[in-house]
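Example record used in the benchmark description.
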Amino acid sequence: MFYALERIGLFIDGANLYAASRTLGIDIDYKRLYDEFAAQGRLIRASNYTALTDDQDYSLTRPLIDWLDYNGYTMVTKTTKELTDSTGRCKIKGNMDIKLAVDVMEMAPVFDYIVLFSGDGDSCRVVEAAQRRGTRVSVVSTVRTTPPMVADELRRQADSFIDLANLAPSIGRLSVDDPESVMATRISPAPTVLQDA
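Model output (structure tokens):
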């Protein structure tokens, strides 16, 4: 799938990856995820897009974001908005799709290969645009859930599809006895945030 010395870019929709991994029962070890793709070629950029609520500056999510930021990931964050619908229910919105799409478009010429961690069908157009610029794109999500966590049109548009369940042995958390996994084991993943349909 990857060729030696190929320039690779990871674009991770944090909420989407969290939802897919949680549904599959996988705890992501972000150090192992980074190392897995760095071993495939030249990992130029690993960007993680995460929405935060106002009160998360001091929550359990903050250590994870800081750890990622200090360990090779480019963190792209945005503060969520709290909205009340017509029935009076409070909803939290923090869609990162536009930021992710713009970054993919701006940086596509830098990469030979983009790995997009998302199952959102809205990503089809940005995948197609990156491909028109000569960049190959793989999508990482899962079809092993009911319903699948990846849109069929996104799977069809991608050059290849990688099921997150198949990556679990390479990027899942190891036991606490493994010294390289201790830090990641202490940090819980970010909570999911509602995405626009």
